[in-house]
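Deliverable D4.2, example record:
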Amino acid sequence: MIETAGLTKRYGRVLAVDGVDLAVPEGARYGLLGPNGSGKTTLIRMLLGLVFATSGRISILGRPVPRRLHEVLPDVGAMVEGPAAYGHLSGRANLRLIDGAGKSVRATRRRRIEDTLERVGLGGVDARPVRTYSLGMRQRLGLAAALLRAPRLLVLDEPTNGLDPQGIHEIRELLREVSAAGTTLLLSSHLLAEVEQLCTWVGIMDRGRLVGQDELAALRAPTGRVVLRSPDAERVVALLDGRVVDRDGDRLAVRHPDAAELNAQLVRAGLRVAEIATERRTLEQVVLERTGAGSDRVVRG
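Output generated by the structure prediction step:
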């Protein structure tokens, strides 16, 4: 759906994006992670033709960008940084202007706008002018504009910025619904927890470079350890004879390749197991391993 090769952007002496080879598969929910200032927004702006690359190649929906951008954009919905709107108009009126600027069917415009406002949670408050909207409401309106034409590709820059926990949950569920209907998602964020809950693919940026890119499940590979809780922790330690590598009260980390096999061994020995699971690397661990120290770190929750 999106492919770049050696994509680079310089602003004078500043190398904002450095030789990025991005690959977003069709149908993926791709999370672009990295600290603020790592180049995520600049990369997205190049994909959408908002700034030109210094060098490198971009292909979106199988077409070169920016040369054939006019063919690509009708199938792309986007929200980049703070969504803009006419403050004296309602959200509904803003969406009418956006929809009227394209080639959409006028006869279905009103129904599509109403449906989209309901989907993003603005149906009941839309008589108000946008200048009275909170930051979270403006984010919802920006998302509504991106979704209005049922895009094949949805590109979102920090889509949950300004939303409260309930709003974040609602937008997450909406994006899952959009993805299930066949839309490919590319979203940038510095919130690890949101990306981990929503995305199927992850790219990690640091200081302008793409330092990691893979399916989330592959990045969170098993560590070769099993984590368990047992009220018989002392006896578990004695039974496993040196394979317990970490202990915190009744929580034990055991060097073992198979949680089910270990559980069966403990049960046969008459030991109680309250919880047991194969330990996997967290996304936080993956990101911190691949990004350098800086003043603006990735948010971990």
